[in-house]
TrEMBL record:
Similarity comment: Belongs to the PhyH family.
Keyword terms: Iron, Metal-binding
Pfam families xrefs: PhyH
Keyword Membrane: no
PANTHER family in alphabetical order: PHYTANOYL-COA DIOXYGENASE DOMAIN CONTAINING 1, PHYTANOYL-COA DIOXYGENASE DOMAIN-CONTAINING PROTEIN 1
InterPro entries noted in UniProt: Phytyl_CoA_dOase-like
Species the sequence originates in: Periconia digitata
A molecular function GO annotation: metal ion binding
Lineage of origin: Eukaryota, Fungi, Dikarya, Ascomycota, Pezizomycotina
Gene3D superfamilies the UniProt entry points to: q2cbj1_9rhob like domain
Protein name (record): Phytanoyl-CoA dioxygenase
Cofactor section: Fe cation
Length: 304
C-alpha cells in the first residue's frame, strides 16, 4: 500500500496537519455510520453512571475523570454531552442524540473500526511519518450532536497521550461532512514547531479514588525531530485555518499542533472516527490517564 507522497509529507511537516480526501470509500463510510447508529440504539441506560464528557476548562478541574472513564481503555463505553441534561439531571434528548463520544477500544473490539484502524494503509502512512513501532490507542467516535455538540478549545493531543519525547499523531476520519456550521476542526498551522507540550493530563489521587488533572511537564516538550525548538508564540496569538472536509476524508494531526472545534448549533450532526498512534520505542508512563490493556497497545507493525 502507498504511504504519503513527498508533497503530502512536506505539507504535514510544515503545517502539523494533513487533509487526505477520499481515504474511505462512501460504502465504508455508510457501513461505519450504520454500525455506530446501531451501537447508539443498543446501549443500555440501565446501570450507566451517566458520565458526561467535559474538557474541564483551562485548569481541567472538571474534566471527566471517574472510574467509568479511566477504565475505558480496553472497553467500549458511552459518554454524554454536557448539554444533554436539564437542571435536574434528566436527559433532554433521546439517548442516541445525547452521546458525545463512544470509546476507547473500538480499534480492537469493533470489527468495522478495527478494519480501518489496523490496516496496511495506515501502517504505510505511519512508516512514511517515520514511526519505528507505531502503537494504536484511544479510538473513539465523536458525535458532535445537533444543537448541543460541545466546543473543544485549543489543545495539543500529546498533552493527553504523552510520551517522552512526544510522539502522538492523530488519525481523524470524517464520517459525515464537517462544516463551519456543525463544528469542523480548525488548525493553527505550523504551531507544532513553536508550541511546546508544557502540561500533561494525568491521573490524580489514590488508586480507587482517582481523578484527572493537568500537571507541568518535566520531560521533553517537542518530539525528537523538533528537538531544539523553543516556544515562540502563545495560544492567544495563533491564527486558525478552518478545516471543512467531506465524509471519507482522513485528517492527520501532529501531537504538538494546536487545533480546536466550535460548538455544533446546527441541525446536522458531525460524526467522526479517530484514533491516535504513539511511538512504541518512547517512554509512556503510569501517570497518563489512559493505561495500556493487558496485552499492550495495538501494533501497526514492529517486532513482538
Amino acid at each position: 500500500m502507498q504511504g504519503l507522497t513527498p508533497d503530502q509529507l512536506s505539507f504535514f511537516q510544515d503545517n502539523g496537519y494533513l487533509i487526505i480526501p477520499d481515504a474511505l470509500s462512501q460504502d465504508t463510510v455508510k457501513e461505519l455510520l450504520a454500525h455506530t447508529n446501531q451501537k447508539l440504539d443498543d446501549f443500555s441506560l440501565e446501570g450507566h453512571p451517566m458520565t458526561k464528557f467535559s474538557t474541564g476548562g483551562d485548569d481541567g478541574a472538571d474534566h471527566v475523570g471517574d472510574a467509568y472513564f479511566l477504565e475505558s481503555g480496553d472497553k467500549i463505553r458511552y459518554f454524554f454531552e454536557e448539554d444533554a441534561f436539564d437542571a435536574s439531571g434528566n436527559l433532554t434528548k433521546p439517548k442516541q442524540r445525547a452521546i458525545n463520544k463512544i470509546g476507547h477500544y473500538l480499534h480492537e473490539l469493533s470489527p468495522p473500526f478495527r478494519d480501518i484502524s489496523l490496516s496496511e494503509q495506515n501502517a504505510a502512512i505511519a512508516k512514511s511519518l517515520g514511526f519505528e513501532d507505531p502503537r494504536v490507542l484511544q479510538s473513539m467516535v465523536i458525535c458532535k450532536q445537533p444543537e448541543i455538540g460541545g466546543a473543544v478549545g485549543p489543545h495539543q493531543d500529546s498533552t493527553f497521550l504523552y510520551t517522552d519525547p512526544p510522539s502522538a499523531v492523530g488519525w481523524w476520519f470524517a464520517l459525515e461532512d464537517t462544516t463551519q456550521e456543525n463544528g469542523c476542526l480548525s488548525f493553527a498551522s505550523g504551531s507544532h514547531k513553536r508550541s511546546p507540550i508544557s502540561r500533561r493530563f494525568v491521573r490524580t489521587g489514590e488508586r480507587g479514588k482517582e481523578g484527572t488533572g493537568f500537571i507541568e511537564n518535566g520531560g521533553a516538550k517537542f518530539p525528537a525531530e523538533l528537538q531544539g525548538e523553543t516556544a515562540t508564540s502563545g495560544e492567544d496569538e495563533e491564527v486558525y485555518t478552518m478545516g471543512e472536509v467531506k465524509a471519507g476524508t482522513l485528517v492527520l494531526i501532529h501531537g504538538n499542533v494546536l487545533h480546536k472545534s466550535e460548538k455544533n448549533l446546527s441541525q446536522k450532526s458531525r460524526f467522526i472516527y479517530t484514533f491516535h498512534v504513539i511511538e512504541g520505542t518512547q517512554k509512556y508512563d503510569e501517570r497518563n490517564w489512559l493505561q495500556p490493556p493487558e496485552k499492550g497497545f495495538s501494533r501497526l507493525y514492529g517486532s513482538s
